[in-house]
Amino acid sequence: MPNIASIIKGHNKRISATLTSKEKEAYNCRKKDTCPLNGNCQASNIIYKAEVKTTDNCKTYIGLTEPPFKLRYGNHKMSLNHEKHQNATELSKHIWQLKQNNQPFTINWSIASRAKAYSNESKRCNLCLTEKLIIINADKRTLLNKRPELISKCRHENKFYINNSSPTTKHRQGNHTQLRSEHRRKAKTQQQNGRKREYTNSRTPKKVLQTTNRTDAKENTPQNNTPTTV
Q1: Distance between the two ends of the chain, CA-based, in angstroms?
Q2: Residues annotated as region Disordered (predicted)?
Q3: CB atoms within 10 A of CB 62
Q4: What are the domain boundaries of the chain?
């Protein structure tokens, strides 16, 4: 049974999460009428739906976004307006096909569902799972999404890997690596210099000793003290 501290902590966590989600769902468009998501362009952790309507049919595209939708919408606008990015998504492929056939169309954006992205605590991404569930249950005759999207790996857990840490952490790790390399080079240089000195010191005294012994031998040689005759 949970204690009082855990109950209070859980309550505060739920309240703070609710307030944060409400703050993020506010729109920042200049005019609410031009907001692509009907005043919810700042909503995050959502599965969105784009309906492409023409005079003949209506196609549906399912997507997701963890950051605010407006950032993802900006990427969609780039792929829909620039032909060099026409293969970015299945939605952009369909739109450019309509443009090439000179068919008029309209795109309506809406929120299909909400779910939390990958968490290092739960080890599960409900955002990706919910998107795949919606794609499976969607009408295949009007769906633009392809089957390989169902087996794609979750990309939201990549930010929890050490090699994908923040730029500050990477900069610090780079500095530490550089310092370690410098220390290794210095230690190697000192070791080589020490070996040279040992080699020099091990040879020099022998020569000095040999020279000294020869000098001492000459000095200690007995001289002939026989007096010379006149």
Answers
A1: 129
A2: 161-230
A3: 21
A4: 24-162
